[in-house]
TrEMBL record:
It is an enzyme of class 2 (transferase). Residues 194-247 form the HAMP domain. It catalyses: ATP + protein L-histidine = ADP + protein N-phospho-L-histidine. InterPro entries: HAMP_dom, HATPase_C_sf, HATPase_dom, His_kinase_dom, HisK_dim/P_dom, HisK_dim/P_sf, TCS_sensor_his_kinase. It is found in: Membrane. This is histidine kinase. Its EC number is 2.7.13.3. The keyword DNA-binding does not apply.
Length: 477
């Protein structure tokens, strides 16, 4: 697994090494250029000094004796040399330090000296300058000077090894300084990266302390670097969703346990009674088994509803896309609930102005309508009329209720919630509206309640939409 700390350290170290190397090379290049320029300036001064000593004596051009007496030119193998010659290459005079070697310096122009580096056969490296000197053609005995001057070339060289030695020492010093700087940079980077990533480590520590019993904990974005604030915000949102989900599952488990405890206790009591005192007559035996059947039906209803709810909450279920005849589906649903509606003296008034065809999942749509109509038949005021309005894109179910207040609306879709437990039979578990809402969400629609407290009219409004092409990848919301 790649380490963020190692990656940052390596990249910063490579970048620092590259910058140090470029800075060192730039500094060395600039220093070498400056030293060579200074060296050339001194060399040019020497050449101009020798140029003044060139004379024409009785038609013979030569260097005055003062030049031969200069120590740097007078010793064989000396550090400085000069060569005086005609432009055609004929030699006029050379310094003793040049011995018999040729000084192959480039020819200068009439106004610009030419600099070059020459290696003599005895391995002396010379930095040379060549310039053109013009010598008066007169004999210097009172006669007038001629109109023409005699051009000669003067080449002066100086050993460059001291300059190279200086540059080498500077280069070594730069290398040593760079190595020390690089070592200090490594330590500084290790310290800086560790300190810079300390908030990440702290965030990891805070997250590791969170478990199923502390989902209410929230990470503090106020003490978090700005780069990590989006991460902290997303984690807090995730923790909030997890907390809601865990609470819902705990409540769901508790409600299921509560709902199953009563029928199981009844079954146990019936079994114990029949074991201790078997039914004395066929009538008593029939009553006992009828009660067992009623309890089993109630438990079966609970299992079916829980299975439907689990299917509706599958996070990656893709609804079907079929043309559903909403008018026919509503008619079949009302017929299926006709017996229950008659038992509670509930009548239905359906308003459907035109045929409505909705592209949807027929199973989920039937689940929604069945639970809405079932809620009416079991919870509407007996003897009342339920109004159903079916339009393109909308279904409204209105019925009169009792014992309901506006404060109860947020709980209508809660699992196992019942506003009046005395008005329900054992098989009404409080899961119907929850199933209807889950199915509507899965279809991409909405199911919303509305309550008129003056007339005690409860209305459920279902807005149709095309089946969602995808679900929210996070089913915890």
């Amino acid at each position: 697994m790649r380490s963020l700390r190692s990656a940052l350290t390596i990249r910063l170290l490579l970048g620092g090494t590259l910058l140090l190397g470029m800075a060192g090379m730039g500094f060395q290049w600039r220093l070498r250029k400056s030293l060579v320029t200074e060296f050339d300036s001194g060399l040019l001064v020497t050449a101009h000094s020798l140029q003044v000593l060139i004379e024409n004596e009785n038609g013979k051009i030569r260097m005055e004796t003062e030049a031969e007496g200069m120590p740097e030119f007078s010793h064989r193998g000396g550090a400085s040399v000069y060569l005086l010659h005609y432009p055609d290459g004929r030699e006029i005079q050379r310094s003793p330090s040049l011995e018999d070697f040729k000084l192959e310096a480039p020819a200068p122009t009439s106004s610009t000296p030419a600099f070059s580096e020459v290696t003599l056969p005895d391995h002396r490296r010379m930095r040379c300058v060549s310039l053109i000197a013009r010598v008066d053609g007169g004999d210097h005995k009172g006669r007038e000077k001629p109109d023409t001057l005699i051009p000669v070339t003067l080449s002066v060289g100086r050993d460059i090894q001291p300059l190279e030695h200086t540059l080498r020492e500077i280069r070594n010093a730069l290398a040593a300084t760079g190595a020390l700087t690089l070592g200090a940079l490594v330590l500084l980077l290790l310290w800086g990266v560790r300190r810079g990533l300390a908030p990440v480590g702290k965030l990891v520590g805070d997250i590791s302390k969170i478990d199923g019993r502390s989902l209410s904990t929230r990470l503090d974005p106020g003490r978090t670097p700005s780069e990590l604030v989006p991460v902290v915000d997303r984690l807090n949102e995730l923790l909030a969703r997890l907390e809601r989900t865990f609470e819902r599952e705990k409540r769901f488990t508790a409600d299921v346990s509560h709902e199953l405890r009563t029928p199981l206790a009844e079954l146990r009591a019936l079994a114990e009674v029949n074991l201790l005192a078997p039914p004395a007559s066929a009538h008593e035996n029939s009553d006992c088994w009828s009660e067992v059947q009623s309890i089993a039906l109630r438990m079966e209803s609970l299992s079916i509803h829980l299975l439907d709810l689990a299917r509706a909450e599958q996070p990656y279920r893709i609804p079907l896309r079929e043309a559903v005849d909403m008018n026919a589906l509503l008619t079949r649903t009302l017929e299926r609930h006709a017996t229950s509606a008659a038992a509670h003296d509930i009548t239905f008034d359906v308003h459907a102005r035109e045929p409505v065809t909705q592209e949807s999942d027929p199973v989920l749509m039937e689940l929604i309508l069945s639970n809405l109509i079932g809620n009416v038949t079991h919870h509407a005021v007996p003897g009342s009329t339920c109004t159903i309005a079916l339009e393109r894109g909308t279904l409204k179910v209105c019925n009169a209720v009792s014992g309901l207040s506006p404060a109860d609306l947020p709980h209508l879709f809660d699992r196992y919630w019942k506003s009046d437990r005395s008005r329900t039979d054992g098989r009404r578990l409080g899961l119907g509206l929850t199933l209807a809402m889950q199915a509507a969400t899965l279809l991409g629609g909405t199911l919303e309640p509305a309550f008129d407290p003056q007339r005690s009219i409860l209305t459920f409004i279902l807005h149709f939409q095309h089946p969602a092409s995808h679900r929210d990848p996070n089913p915890l919301v």
